[in-house]
Amino acid sequence: RKDLEWYALESADDQHPPWLSWKDDVTAVVFDASFAGCRPTSAFLWFCDCYNLKSIEGLEGMDFSEVVTAHSMFKNCCSLVSVSLPSGLRFLDEYMFFNCTSLTSLTIPSSVTYVAPTAILSCGALRTIVVEAGHVRRLKELFKAAGLDISGLEFVVADSVARAVLEDSGKTLRFVYDSNDYPGTKNANWF
Question: Are residues 83 and 108 in contact, defined by beta-carbon separation less than 8 angstroms?
Answer without folding.
Answer: no
